[in-house]
Amino acid sequence: MGNVVAACAHKSAKGHSLFLCQPIDENGEDSGDPVVAISPFGGGMGSTVVVSADGLATRGYVKDPKSPLRMSIISILDE
Asked: What's the CATH code of the domain at 46?
């Protein structure tokens, strides 16, 4: 859906890209509320991505075991 700009964010988000992602179903239709996910890969508006809710992996990526971040983009899909 787009990028996230925060006036104030947890220190573990500093220097990382945050994206607003709209979950979709197998037909490409909206499914649920948008989520904020961190991305080690970049990405951009309109990209189809795979988002993981594995908070442990996300906290490992940002190297902060107490980070509130939970969602991370683990793949950008080719179309």
From this structure: 2.40.50.220
